[in-house]
Amino acid sequence: MNKRLITIGFLIIAVAIIAKLACTIGKNIKVDDFHKAAVIFVLDSSASNQSQLPEEVRYVKSLCSILDPEDAIKILKVDSSSYLIYEGSPGDASGISKAISTYAKSDANSLGAAYSQGIKKAVDHCLTMKKEGYNTAIVVVGNLDSANSSLAINWDTLPNNIKKAQKYIPELAMMFVYAPPEKLDLAKTKLNPVLGETKLIIANSANVDKANRRFLTAIGR
After folding, report:
1. Who's near 118: CB < 8 A, 6+ residues apart?
2. Beta bridge partner(s), residue 177
3. Is 140 helix (H, G, I), strand (E, B) or coil?
4. Are 187 and 176 in contact (CB under 8 A)?
5. Mean pLDDT over the full length of the chain
6. At the fourth CATH level, which superfamily is domain 35-218?
7. What is the pLDDT of residues 49-77, one digit of tens each?
8. Where are the domains positioned within the chain?
9. Residue 11 burial by Cβ neighbours in a 10 Å radius (0-12, 13-18, 19+)
């Protein structure tokens, strides 16, 4: 009887040790697998995109709501020029709203949407945030159109520029949302060979919500 009790005791101790080890390993895996993300929004506030802007702003807020508190976001306004209008936590809903309502208005003398400048600045921000330990992503929100060709995206040079950036930010993901189908198709044709299916997300207004799951996967969630 005593031998049986001793054996049972040893088994209980062994099970307890194994359970504790499994719990510790599980916690370590969770910590190691999590990478905070820096998401750079390029938001078109030009005259040609004003009618669509309210819906796009709601989308920006909805995407921010599913990010982690440890993540960081930056919002770049795109009009006749591009500049930073917000940086901080994705959970700062009031700060995001205030920045967008204050600055995301079309310039009086708008000459088109400076998408090229906006994306270049977004890449520069990604390079900086990578040094701070973030996984990086760029979300371009707008119709991808510009009345001034000198401000528009140069689709012939952009893929190579992104490829160069990948040497320093290999995890870079890009998402294009709310553009017309022909513009989204162009983005996919040009950038898919560089970013691949996992790191490039394309979505129009009808399927943008479904794209969020793919975006989270792209940033390592």
Report:
1. 42, 76, 78, 82, 140
2. 141, 203
3. strand
4. yes
5. 88
6. von Willebrand factor, type A domain (3.40.50.410)
7. 888 999 999 999 999 999 999 999 999 99
8. 1-33, 35-218
9. exposed
